[in-house]
Amino acid sequence: MSEEATEKVNVPPKANTPKAGWRIKTGFAIFIASVTWPVLLPILPLFGFSNQAVAKFTVAMFVAAELMMVAAAAISGKSGFAYIKQRLFGWLKSYGPPETVSPGRYKTGLVLFFLPLLYALLSPYIRKYIPGIPEYGVAYAIVGDIMLLAGLFMLGGNFWRKLRALFVHKAVAVVPDQAVG
What pTM value is reported for the model? Predict the structure, then answer.
């Protein structure tokens, strides 16, 4: 038997997978709306909203997003909501970082990950030496955030497990012995 035939035989059947009817489609639309609302936050000040108005809108938006998430689950049903999450997160996972990366990519990812953290740590002390901070502080912050996220993406899935292990009390680092030549 060929490998293809064996793989097809070993694939478990999809049990009770709901069809994407109007309930699942409506639940999916509400789910997407509740997740994408935070995109509005950075543009509100551009429309002249005060900081207080932005803060009030943020609180209202997060409460509404939670209520919309509950509504999406109620409309689509338990199996429909599981279907939505499986499809959405399955799609996102296909674009996620690979498990292992090359040493060059890993080192580049570490630089992109740690430079924004180093800047955030030192910026109160070196702020007066960096040109444009008073005028472009938000731009510096956005660039730092993008670098941090790009670094996390470049580091790969193994790094995510290492990062997660920092928050697990009983996790132990195992470093293989290097051959001394």
Answer: 0.48
